[in-house]
Amino acid sequence: MKIIVLTIFPNLFDSFWEHGIIRRALEQKEMSGCAMDIRDYAEGRHRVTDDRPYGGGSGMVMKPEPLAGAIRAAKKLVPTARTVLLSPQGRVFGQAVAREMASREALIFVCGRYEGVDERICRDLIDDELSIGDYVLTGGEIPAMVVIDAVTRLLPGVLGNEDSAVTDSFSGHLLEHGHYTRPREFEGESVPDVLLSGDHPAIERWRREAALMRTFLRRPDLLTDQPLDPETLETLKNWCRDIEAIIRAQSVRRADSSPGVEPKG
User: Fold this and answer.
1) Is the N or C terminus of the chain more exposed, i.e. has fewer CB atoms within 10 Å?
2) Is the pLDDT of residue 68 over 80?
3) Catalytic site includes residue 30
4) Within a domain: residue 203?
5) How many domains does one find in the chain?
6) How far apart are CA 114 and CA 60, in angstroms?
């Protein structure tokens, strides 16, 4: 995969390319990455990339000429690339979008700044807009790094264990189960016995149920937003029966302890 980032702060990406999974992907030639300076395509001695908005209002808007020049230069380098603007108005980025983008040959990320970019750029030269959440950041550089990181780890051969990407949170409809490592005991808490048993089917069942419980408690929307497989659905039904039994037992207990009711001998 080929990745080009268009930004007015290309130096922000110097260390980004040099560490962790990103560095591994570059070294293994599963990905190439670079940052191009939008200012190189601005006219004048000061290489201005922003101006006041027509119609008045607060803030500044990124000028169309430098952006258009930078995007077209990047497209010459990677003609098949999809051009993506990082914007709070874009579709929300998630694991499914990461998988979609990981299947492409090349990506150009446009990092907006100020109040946004000239609308004519969005209309004519942008293929997609992405947001990493419902909040506003100073610029698109950090969102671009987030997206690149998520996409890179899905590229074949990048992760040491190919199963890691499959079992990550949000790869299916469940959050990931909790993880444990040495020491066996830490500040009075022990690793669950099943993880030390060597019984791999039992471990797999524990991990699946732990993932389901974590999802139910922290992100129940993930369980309602998409179809569940029969095994997951059956586990939830069993929990429901157990919870109903507890509620019935507590209701009987409260009734037995109410004033005017003789306790059962």
Assistant:
1) C
2) yes
3) no
4) no
5) 1
6) 6
d(CA 89, CA 170): 22
Residue 131 lies in a domain: yes
Domain that holds residue 144: 2-152
Q: Report yes or no on 135 lying in a domain.
A: yes
- Out of 88, 113, 118, 141, the active site residue is 88
| Neighbour tally for 102: CB within 10 Å | 18
Determine which one of 115, 124, 242, 256 is catalytic.
115
Find the CATH number of the domain harbouring 115: 3.40.1280.10
254 within a domain of the structure (yes/no): no
For position 159, what pLDDT does the model report?
87
Instruction: Report how far residue 221's alpha carbon sits from residue 75's, in angstroms, rounded to the nearest whole number.
Output: 39
- Whether 263 is catalytic is no
- Work out the number of other CB atoms within 10 angstroms of the CB of residue 75: 16
264 falls in which pLDDT band (50, 70, 90)?
A: low
Compute the Cα dihedral for 19, 25, 28, 34 and give only its sign.
negative
